Amino acid sequence: MIIWRDGVVTATGTSWRGAVELRVEITAGPAAPVSVAPGTVVKALAYPELVGTPRVGDRVSLTCSALARGLGTGGYAMVAAIPDALPADPPPSPGHLVKARYTPLQSMVLGVDEQESDSHAVLADADDLGGMPVVVADLHSALPAVLAGLRAEAAAAGRPAPRVAYVMTDGGALPAWFSRSLAQLREAGWLEASVTVGQAFGGDLEAVTLHSGLLAAKHVLGVDVVIVAQGPGNLGTGTRWGFSGVAAGEALNAVAVLGGRGVASLRVSNADARGRHRGVSHHSTTAYGRVALAASDVVVPVSHHRHDVPGWDADLGRYVMLSAQEITAPHTPHRLVPVPVAGLEVALRDVPVRLSTMGRTLQDDATPFLAAAAAGRWAARLLAPVTGTIWHLALESDWARAVEHGSYETSTRDCPLAEVGFVHASLDHQVDGVAAAVYGDLAGSGAVLLEIDADALAAGGVAVVREPGSPDQSGDRFPHVYGAVPVTAVRAVRPWRGTLAATTGAGS
């Protein structure tokens, strides 16, 4: 049901790309209205692309259902028409995609993937994302935080900020114009473009499906990374399956089908009063653990120092890790990727938009934003994979076990891969230092040097990225192998002779 009202614009307020806020005095409604009675002044929102540009004194027709129910994200009166100042007919133009189909405000747009589009030939047979990282999040509020992590990691590694597109699905707001954050991120240069898919509309590009939207981001926009999330206004019912974020799992499936690398951003909170959302939200465990059937990287934020995350304590950290372990291998195809959050709070404070999720700011609860930023940090690391030869020192007994089972699953001396999350490795100039620090007592016996082909690992879906060796994310960056090392990816195994040169015979 819709609550209809007529009113008169008394003031115009803040505007951003595609939207303008208004103050409207209600002038008419049904007899004996339950709420929003005549004489009430309400905050309203208009989309000029749909209804024209309202001015002070204009009579407007409003829908007030969300306002009357006191909803948060959608709590505006929405301008449905300006009856006395109808916008001019649009000029003839290409495009026959209808969004918000068969509603009174259905909109016809040019789809990037349709026949009349200049990009149709590019997308006609496009079928591959080429391993591009795609970060998937449940909530729209994760978008600026993921971007903060991407940009902070690129800066720390001495690389330019990646070019990023936002693909907006239709589980929340349908008009992209509703998002003030999206407009501000575009203005700040943090986003290359937005692509609205399904019934959503108002992006820089329009696409029929999530699949064609992802392909457009890759092949038309040419971006490095994509972030997928619904628009503002997540819908939930307090049931296991009745929430719009379930589509995050389907998004990861789409990424995998198209040959991208899915990165799942966990929804985490340390302040939500609802038990189902405290720690790791059931939205994440359901969408990623039950719906997403293809292997993706589930990023788990980790803190080695309590000051990294205000309000983050050891109990919360353990709970988040345990929840993530339940939705990753061996229970599902997903890979658990621990990512330190050190330094990310500083990056989040520099975001050019106001950070808020479920009414809570960064100061109220930093954990949801840090979790999203950690996913961004990981996606940025995936953009610079290690190639060629990497080295790993192993105990002879650990290597013998690997030969027996077909894969090497030790992170470093006395630490299994399952406990750490990755296998430590070294570049040429790092081997001797690691050996002295970790294997100094075994020179000449008990250890072997593995020569590993990083390209072979990548071909098998195992990520090898350079990461700081220190928990505070400073210092030299080492290759970390996020997965077991198949014995077939090991080119050579040599008894350790105390130095890389002595072991390999280099220079002799």
TrEMBL record:
Name of the protein: DUF3866 family protein
Family annotation (SUPFAM superfamilies): ADP-ribosylation
Lineage: Bacteria, Bacillati, Actinomycetota, Actinomycetes, Micrococcales
Signal sequence annotation: none
Superkingdom field: Bacteria
Organism encoding this protein: Serinibacter arcticus
